[in-house]
Amino acid sequence: MTFSFNWRAALLGLLVATSAAYAADGRPPVTPAAAPAALAQRPGHAGIASANFHATEAGLEVLAKGGNAFDAAIAVAATLSVVEPESSGIGGGFMAVLHRADGREVFIDARETAPAAVNPKDYLDKNGEPNRDTALNGPLSAGIPGEPAGLAWLATHYGKLPLKDSLAPAVRVARDGFVPDGRLINAIAEREQDIRRWPASVAKYLPSGKPPVAGQTWKDPDQARTLELLGEHGFDGFYRGEIGKKLVDAVRAAGGNWTAKDLESYQIKERTPISVDYRGYRVVTAPPASSGGVAVAEILNILSGYDLTKLDEPHRLHLVIEAMRRAFRDHNDYLGDPDFVKMPLDMLLSPYYAAGLRQTILMDKATPSSMLPASTGIDPGMHTTHFSVIDKDGNIASITLTVNYTMGSTFVAEGTGVLLNDEMDDFALVPNKPNVYGLLGSAANAPAPGKRMLSSMTPSIVFGADRVGVIGSPGGSTIITQVLEGILAFIDGKDAKGIVAQKRFHHQYMPDRVDVEPGAFSPATAEALTRMGYTLKDRNPWGYMNVVTWDLKTNTLDAASDPRRESGLGKVQ
Ligand code: GLY
What we know:
single chain, alpha+beta, Glutamine Phosphoribosylpyrophosphate, subunit 1, domain 1, six-stranded antiparallel sheet, 14% strand, binds glycine
């Protein structure tokens, strides 16, 4: 490919001298995001969308008992821990964007942390190469869980009901049993060899010596008891006492390095959500230690300089993909745990910076990623889970939860029923070597005692003059582009069902290609994009979006779960 001038120099110059680029750009600055405000109305009814009908029904049950959206969120999250353990659980963590009916907004960071004894050498083999086994399997791969502390925090600070009451439906499902869906059965089969390495994992997931079969009822009494202790004693019920001791003993006996102090000193962080205005809509989303909200805001800021509605489909997609490419490049370079690293967030979120980036985009040609200042594959993971809640008073919860890879570390701590996460792989364990999602990292995301590993989780809420949308999805690095495409679909006027069903595409800077879900692009659009210089790669469907929308004109709610899997439920009552 030949270019008529020095692209690299031009791009570098524009990235550095962004203010100057903005002045030359001449476009009006993006209006700073409006301050949150209470909405003038209440829906009068509630909507929940989650990846499993047991969890959605648990949330609705707690609402019926007088709970609010945040109590319902506790019920949904805890039930997902039981019925969808391949994606999230009390051995993992979550990130939540909350909007209270009084207008106050907060981001709850219940992300896992590295234990104090974290040692980067544990993630190298004897030749100094990345050891993917310790990064992804067994107790060394597990961060200190954040979800139990997060659930206790939600009950204490935002809910109306005692934690115990909100956890009751999950305890009941775990104790009485449920029929695992096909996805859980497949996840256990996929990770069977690793599960077999740990006796308590075999006892829990291979109770008859093999993965459960369709239609078989499955009980989880150990987790029921752990959830009960959490309900009775709050934080201490999990991080101290009997369960805390069993967790530490099990981890250490299997070669891990957790201590009682790691558990006792775990802290929830409340942060200010990122808030960005885009063409009359206000998007409230996840700040670091997630990279997702920064990337979504950067992409929206870039796109705000174009009127996408006036463009044909190939050109609209071209601009969205170029914005994705630039945001993912920054993701790799700058982002990490805000309590440990200084990040140029003012720059990354600035409309001036976006305007500079915009000037590096040609209207008819893909920019090869290699032409951007240097800073890798994707497994469009089916791990992690997201749910959305709006209650009758207008409280809103957008929550994404994870144990990282399917079935986390596959390690269950003896006597607790707790499946531990393998979130340590979300650190840049070895600089510039890709993690399971093909993401690269730098020093900003290097592991350190007590540090949170960077996440892609992007729970978001979009406020327009006439509509509110609660949006999020699992899918590793694809979470960011799924949420972005969900926001754009919401702004285009799609209903909840249309948003979750919409076909997806994804670009993450490296590898320099566009992943395309079957049917996402028409043959003519695919040909036009190929002519512009894009490499398109067909991929199996990915993600599992759960959306609730609120139409402020008719004061009605709509809830939908992604049709890509069978067990989800979006319901309004
Ligand atoms: N473990 C996936 C994420 O947090 O992005």
